[in-house]
Amino acid sequence: MRYVTVFILSLIFWLLLTFRLSVPNLIVGSVASLICSLIFTRYFITSVYKLVQPKRYFWFLVYLVVFTWECIKANFDVAYRVLHPAMPIKPGIVKVKTSLKSELARMLLANSITMTPGTISVDIIDDYLFVHWIYVRSDDPEVYTSIITGKFEKYIKNIIE
Length: 161
Fold this sequence. Notes:
mainly alpha, 2 domains, 3-stranded antiparallel sheet
């Protein structure tokens, strides 16, 4: 069942990318989707029933809005730091504890942090993410954990877990 789900999702993604419903495009898309499903299904979520739960799609849309807003705020923050004459930066690598259990959820959190300007996820070890931050605002782990992951983690938990 997982192979079929990955195949269908890959084919839908292919059709959305190419935006053509011709026979050659369907053949190439089917072959590419088959190859993707054979290679990547073992990394896909184990319980496919999660894909048919509408509340996950709702939380994904909410997450997209929150992520977009956080990226806009981070862009302005980084632009301010770059354009300011004194260049107020205080870079450092912080160790952030996450409550996410699945590898997919941790990966989504790490990628969300990396795509937000001013932060880069360096490594994931067990329940910890190591994040390079352009301006470390606090030395307290609970404070910087809530600043970095607090906005994303609860939505990712509703989507994935």
